[in-house]
Amino acid sequence: MGNEMLYIGKSFIVLIFVIFAINYLLKLLDRFVNKNGKYITMIERVPLNRTSSLCIVKVSESYFLMSCTDTKNEILKELSIEDIKAEKAVLDIAQHKKFRPANPVVLDDVDESGRISRRGMRK
Hints:
With 123 residues, this protein is α+β, with helices and mostly antiparallel strands. Helix content is 41%, strand content 31%. The chain has helices at residues 2-33, 81-99, and strands spanning 40-47, 53-59, 62-68, 73-79, 106-110, 116-119. A 4-stranded antiparallel beta sheet has the order 1-2-3-4. A two-stranded antiparallel ribbon has the order 5-6. The radius of gyration is 27 Å and the shape is elongated. It starts with a helix and ends with a strand.
């Protein structure tokens, strides 16, 4: 019985070591695979189907909307910095509205039974 527990304990320690080693190797490989250059950076990539996607790429100080497929990559449009800032502002406002509750909860007092009464909520 004692030998079996020792064997199980050693197996568990080796399993934990293997998991951490795989995690470290994946992080190391990620540096080489997703390497952004000093002047060229992939900002965002949105897949359209299995073989094609739209990409926003920053080259030096210019932004480009690109179509990326298995066979060729094309620049569809050069984006101005003002367009990107305006879109970011619109998206930030939309996300803020998305997570804000429609009916704000205002807490009133705690009654004698310990329940909290709320205004602005449906019962």
